[in-house]
Amino acid sequence: MSYSTRQREVILNVLRQAGRPLTPQDIRQQASQDSAGIGLATVYRALKTFIAEEVIVPVEIPGASPCYEPADRGHHHHFICQQCQRVFDLTGCVHGLEALAPQDFCVQRHEIVLYGVCACCTEGRGSEVEASTDQDLHSLHK
Amino acid sequence: MSYSTRQREVILNVLRQAGRPLTPQDIRQQASQDSAGIGLATVYRALKTFIAEEVIVPVEIPGASPCYEPADRGHHHHFICQQCQRVFDLTGCVHGLEALAPQDFCVQRHEIVLYGVCACCTEGRGSEVEASTDQDLHSLHK
DNA sequence: ATAGATGCAAAGAGTTTGCATAGGT
DNA sequence: ACCTATGCAAACTCTTTGCATCTAT
Which nucleotide in the DNA or RNA is closest to residue B23, CA to C1'? Predict the structure, then answer.
């Protein structure tokens, strides 16, 4: 089995406290505050372990770098802001998706991604957000 | 403007004749048959030019390598076979997607991806397809 | 003749792996 | 004590860029 180390606890904490999926770089940067000098390789290895243990899930957005979030958030989809490039969680889903595939295709799961401009960036605060170190947590969960 | 060279014509032809989005590697491999010794860099540069000219569009599927297809296929979505990893075009769309985003978010476009097993792989021909050099064109367009 | 395109090789970004050391059990 | 995790650096993959040469206009 896997050991519980300080680095892994910190990584998991970072992912849980963020209200949105994070990239490995995001994670490393955040984690550095609690565990200085943490290596990127450690982040990648921890992510791989957590995925295998189904503690987190990868979120791969077309046009964005792969990112990760806790697995306990249930079925949901994502919104990516074209301005600040951040990924947000959405709630809800739509029906009738299986109908898009030919009948001899077997549909196992689906992904929906919305692209646009988030509330922050719409308010004209786009540039400052873009440069932020991203401590702010923009959860859309109620 | 851009010149019309043999390589570019071949690349565009390959994309048009394929019934599904292709990766740069796919394209290079196919194009080699008509233009031996074509370089990968040439493919990437041609793709960039074609995208700028809006002749082709990038198709970025979560969990798959980025691929490309002609821009004149209209609004549609994609299916990725978990077995052979190929990307197929779907026809049709669903409504009510904007409703998934908070009202202060501006939705500009969307992407829907279905994952599952394609007809070929369901028929038990998965392994041979997986190893194929992919000359076969699996269009879903009617 | 000139500007753009090609092929190669080198350079970058992102991710993975080998290895010696440190740390959890 | 044993086995796993860490950090570093090297290796790998995918994509981009520099440069000399070639080609379309």
Answer: D14
Q: Whose CA is closest to A101, among B87, B16, B129? A: B87
Neighbours of B101 (CB within 10 A): 22
- Interface membership of A115 toward B (CB under 8 Å): yes
CA B122 to chain centre: 21
Domain residue ranges in chain B: 6-141
pLDDT tens per residue across all 142 residues of chain A = 789 999 999 999 999 999 889 999 999 999 999 998 999 999 999 999 999 999 999 988 776 778 999 999 888 998 888 877 778 889 889 988 889 999 999 999 888 989 889 898 887 654 444 333 333 333 333 3
Instruction: Kindly report the nearest CA distance between residue B121 and chain A, in angstroms.
Output: 9
According to CATH, the topology of domain B6-141 is: Arc Repressor Mutant, subunit A (1.10.10)
Chain D positions with an atom below 7 A of a protein C-beta are 4-10, 14-18, 23-25
Residue B71 gets which letter from DSSP? G
Q: Which residue is nearest to nucleotide C16 (CA to C1')?
A: A41
| pTM summary value | 0.78
